[in-house]
Design brief:
Helix 2 packs across helix 14. By secondary structure, the chain is of the alpha/beta class. The chain has an eight-stranded parallel sheet with strand order 9-6-5-4-3-2-1-10. Helix content is 29%, strand content 19%. Among the domains are: 196 residues, Glycoside hydrolase family 3 C-terminal domain (Rossmann fold); 111 residues, Immunoglobulins (Immunoglobulin-like, Sandwich), CATH 2.60.40.10. The structure holds 1-deoxynojirimycin. The site of 1-deoxynojirimycin (NOJ) has 7 residues, from loops.
């Protein structure tokens, strides 16, 4: 029997309250959870608790607890419908990968997919079957702490990586016990919160919503994502929990999304604070009609929906549609046949294979922002100082939105350097800044580990300066004053304003929050056993006053670079970023040559270029393709990423990169909200970042 027939049969047996129970996600910490499960109120449970420590990370503590809740649902509730157990497992479970923004710097969908597979394997072993990831919010404002959780500023890059993450979490077949249902979030436009302040409102023009913020969600839906979470924010006064046009309209009707939509935590109830609902019953009615199928934690649905149906304010068909979506997810996961997790699988947590996957991800996530030649360091006859406020950090390396990584499984950067170089290199270290400044003159080079701790990154950790934290900047300046060559390792969940460091230090390696194996990846890179290849998935501004600053802005009527007062510019700072989107150095050097553009069909183009490794070091280069639609019915971005390719090049080797563009790649959403192709002239660039490259053009009739 097909899922849909099974769902029909089950729906036919359900009471109204049991149906609404499927639309309810209860918090794991509520006191009467077990009774509520027996009553059929727990369609889902959010496991928002901190992990209960076992003796080892392989102890199946959570697995045993969730299996017991599942048993109550399956054996002691009337219909025996299994529970969806949700948790935030954004970039790794016990084995932690780089934060998503760091993973995006790999520009490598295979990496994103493999980290998601490891995450799914480990989280599912503990009984989690619904993961609140990937975060696919386009973020143009680094003041917003949650920029760390997503894949950066570009809709194309984010869409490709969103699909890779969905594939990784959900696998080929969700009945495989090592998979989890992915829940893409936060629908839609959350990254545009005003002032970069979390939970705030947004103003997003319809064309911008369609062309910038929605594409990653559309990509995730095409990849079969099982659930979508709506955001806390509003657009122009309409909170997401009430946004019928977006949720019921675009997502479900226009795109044909068959999964379920879940609110963010208590966001349905929060409509009273937004000022669009007076009572909890109003909240329930508005959200159910907007198309939100599951209520995370506020319990508004379970308290109010049945009465709304019984008093004819809400059609039962609305409830049935929501329940059908939730049950569909449970059938897709195979939970009716296999509701329990095999607790022995927790032995896989932190396995060497898993560590290997996140180590490779960490390696490729590192972005070399500056290098005057000091890196890579020699492995002998050298005295290296490893100093700075984060040199000994361990938990920090796991990033802000990571519940399950434990610092005991993480090596600090200082320890990783010591492990690596053995006795051939003298390592000097101290926790104290004053001591560091005394020792530093004895060093040939100083590695200064600075940046953001996790209390300054992630959810609701928004900031009004992008400078390094005060002590960190002062430390770098003091090192500079004693003229020791210094390479800064910058840990952070966002692009910081590093203009001083760029001007004054020898090297800057941006390492984000790189995860369990991050310190080893960094150390391999410092000493040349790994050649950095990451490219920034966000623009690095010079200072906070420039934000929002993104490469794919629209042209103005008075564009730069005309250097006079009538043109769009700041009076007190350059308009350019410090490092553009797509930027990142290597120990190799690459040369781009011979751009070829061939119109292969009336609406298709092939673009190729040759890339040569002109150095004596093997390395990877991420070649990027940008276009500009020169004249259109609405003003189009000055550049738009349309393709990218990672090439591994031996010394002296040349490879040809080829990109094929189709009509869809060259189309955009017009003023009527339709995807439209408008013929005419297109400019093209193929290069190492969004600022430079070989330029050409083509015309389509
Ligand atoms: C609030 C966050 O916005 C969301 O991303 C997360 O999934 C939920 N809390 C649950 O932890």
């Amino acid at each position: 029997m097909s899922f849909e027939l099974k769902i029909d049969a089950l729906l036919g047996r359900m009471t109204l309250v049991e149906k609404v129970g499927q639309m309810c996600q209860l918090a794991i910490f509520i006191p009467d959870l077990e009774d509520r499960i027996r009553q059929g109120h727990a369609g889902s449970i959010i496991c928002s608790n901190s992990p209960t420590p076992g003796n080892t990370p392989q102890d199946p503590v959570l697995a045993l607890q969730l299996n017991e809740y599942q048993r109550l649902a399956v054996e002691e509730s009337r219909l025996g419908i299994p529970i969806l157990f949700g948790r935030d497992v954004l970039h790794g479970y016990k084995t932690v990968g780089p934060i998503p923004l760091g993973q995006a710097a790999t520009w490598n969908p295979e990496i994103i997919e493999s980290v998601a597979r490891v995450t799914a394997c480990e989280a599912s072993a503990d009984g989690i079957n619904l993961n609140f990831a990937p975060v696919i919010d386009i973020a143009r404002d680094p003041r917003w702490g949650r920029i760390a959780e997503g894949f950066g500023e570009d809709p194309h890059l984010c869409s490709v990586l969103a699909q890779a993450a969905v594939r990784g979490y959900q696998g080929e077949d969700l009945t495989d016990p090592a998979t989890v249902l992915a829940c893409a979030k936060h629908f839609a436009g959350y990254g545009a919160v005003e002032g970069g302040r979390d939970y705030n409102g947004t103003e997003i023009a319809a064309t911008t919503l369609r062309n910038i913020y929605l594409p990653p969600f559309w990509a995730a839906v095409r990849a079969g994502v099982g659930a979508i979470m709506s955001g806390f924010h509003d657009i122009g006064g309409i909170p997401m929990s009430a946004h019928r046009e977006l949720v019921a309209g675009i997502l479900k009707e226009e795109w044909g999304f068959e999964g379920f939509v879940i609110s963010d935590w208590a966001a349905i109830d929060e409509m009273r604070q937004h000022g669009v609902a007076e009572t909890r019953a109003d909240c329930a009615l508005i959200s159910a009609l907007a198309g939100l199928d599951m209520d995370m934690a506020s319990e508004v649905y379970i308290d109010e929906l049945a009465a709304l149906v019984e008093t004819n304010q809400l059609a039962e068909a609305v409830i049935d549609d929501a329940v059908r979506r939730v049950l569909r997810a449970k059938f897709r996961l195979g939970l009716f046949d296999q509701p329990y997790t095999d607790v022995k699988r927790a032995s896989l947590h932190l396995s060497p294979d898993h560590r290997q996957v996140v180590r490779k991800a960490a390696e490729q996530s590192l972005v070399l922002l500056k290098n005057d030649g000091i890196l890579p360091l020699a492995k002998s006859d050298l005295t290296v100082g490893v100093f700075g406020p984060l040199a000994n950090a361990r938990k920090t390396l796991c990033g802000a939105w990571n519940l399950d990584g434990h610092e005991d499984s993480v090596l600090s950067i200082l320890d990783a350097v010591r492990d690596k170089v053995g006795a051939n290199v003298e390592i000097l270290a101290t926790d104290l800044v004053d001591d560091a400044l005394k020792i530093a003159p004895r060093c040939d080079v100083v590695i200064a580990v600075v940046g953001e701790g996790i209390a300054r990154s992630g959810e609701n950790n928004c900031i009004t300066t992008l400078d390094l934290p005060p002590g960190h900047q002062a430390f770098l300046e003091a090192l500079h004053a004693i003229q020791v060559p210094t390479a800064a390792i910058v840990l952070a969940g966002r692009p910081l304003a590093l203009e001083w460091a760029d001007r004054n230090l020898s090297a800057i390696l941006m390492v984000w929050h790189p995860g369990t194996e991050g310190a080893k990846a960094i150390t391999d890179t410092l000493f040349g056993d790994h050649n950095p290849s990451g490219k920034s998935p966000v623009t690095f501004p010079r200072n906070v006053g420039q934000v929002p600053l993104h490469y794919n802005h629209r042209p103005t009527g008075r564009p730069l670079p005309r250097n006079d007062r009538r043109h769009s510019r700041y009076a007190d700072a350059p308009d350019s970023p410090l490092y553009p989107f797509g930027y990142g150095l290597s120990y190799s050097t690459f040369e781009y040559r011979n751009l070829h553009i061939t119109v292969t069909a009336p609406r298709a183009v092939s673009i190729s270029a040759e890339i040569t490794n002109t150095s004596s070091t093997a390395g990877d280069e991420i070649a990027q393709l940008y276009i500009r639609d020169v004249v259109a019915s609405i003003s189009r971005p000055v550049k738009e990423l349309k393709g990218f390719s990672r090439l591994s090049l031996k010394p002296g080797e040349t490879q040809t990169v080829v990109f094929q563009l189709t009509q869809d790649d060259l189309s955009f959403y017009n003023q009527s909200g339709h995807l439209s192709f408008e013929p005419g002239l297109f400019k093209v660039w193929v290069g190492p970042d969004s600022n430079t490259g070989l330029a050409g053009q083509f015309e389509l009739k």
